[in-house]
Amino acid sequence: MGRAIILMMDSFGIGGAADADAFDSEGANTFGHIARFNHGLKIPYLHSLGLTKAAAEASGIIPEIGSQPEGFIKLGSKFGHMSEISKDKDTVSGHWEMAGLPNLKGWGHFPPEYPSFPEELIDSICREGNINGILGNKAASGTVIIQELGEEHLKTGKPVFYTSADSNIQIAAHEQRFGLEKLYALCKVAYELAKPWNIGRIIARPFVGEKAGSFTRTANRRDFTAEPFDKTLLDYLKDAGKNVIAIGAINDIFAHRGITKGIRGSGLKNLWDLTLSEIKSAPDNSLIFTNFEDFDMLWGHRRDLKGYAEGLEYFDSRLAEIETLFRPDDIAFITADHGNDPSYKGTDHTREQVPVLMFGPGILSENIGSRSTYADLGQTIAEYFGLTPLKFGRSFLQ
Q1: 153 and 173 in contact (C-beta within 8 Å)?
Q2: What is the pLDDT of residues 23-56, one digit of tens each?
């Protein structure tokens, strides 16, 4: 048995979610709107794998990517589009669902207006975390709120607490002046105390700088994620003696469960370099799972249509390198966990379908059409490795 590789493009939706209106995402189409705004995209590898066809089927709109060279690759590809059944459109729900564990109950959420967080929760965090109060206490864009409150944070030592439309508490503090380890320790306290509210993630958001306008977030973000409420594909693989190699945010997203090797990294280039290095060396019976977070964190949430396009073109330019590293039985997948349309109102995720592209040396080209849950991907990998079928999903391996 060979290896399976998941290249997870965080937030790369392709529109067409049937329940988009229930998530305030009607008309959102991350891929389509990026292509239109930038008057085309140079993504010949993704196009040859069937991305454009899958996106057109999902949304009913052909993405305006411009002409692309045909026959760009010799590998076969199965291509289709997946809908999410989880009750939230956050990163954790999307990842868990593609690993066979949809979040059918949904998370608890905090209200966007001040004060977002219950007084008893904040009092407990301040007491057990040994801090003299908090700033913020509302829904906000992280890059905006550190400019708004960063100077006050430096004067008072109070960390900045904020949330978003997703289920989270985000805690921002100065990496040197407050201290990185102190920030992580505070997030661990908040993680334990927030459990009664069924919150998906506590996110540490360190930043640097000395005055408003100069504050910037660093690469030392850390997510303290709720434990999966049941086994995921990763757990089953590890239990069966397989290797599960998690690159980037994957380790945090799965609460460090079901993983045999975790590799930290950030930035599109660095994550690609790490992924290719692992593909070169990973033994058979391995899953290599990378989260390319820049699409969401840098370009989706910041509503940067140009940056997102440049990221897509760079991502595409690295795909040919995988082709040279494939072993005969290897398979690879390209997918996403939700949408984040940079042209849409606000700064939150958008409910969309996502692409699912499967390619490798032994794959025959096939349109696998509409998939009713992200869990179809996990079920396919489970079949590939000879595991007992997962509780959710329908395999498209054969």
Answers
A1: yes
A2: 999 999 999 999 999 999 999 999 999 999 999 9
Q: Tell me the angle at which helices 51-59 and 30-37 cross, rounded to the nearest 10 degrees.
A: 110
Q: What is the CA radius of gyration of the chain?
A: 21
Angle between helices 180-193 and 119-129 (to 10 degrees): 140
Nearest Cα to Cα of residue 295 among 9, 15, 82: 9
Query: Per-residue pLDDT tens for 275-288?
Result: 999 999 999 999 99
Tell me if 384 sits within 8 A of 369, measured CB to CB.
no
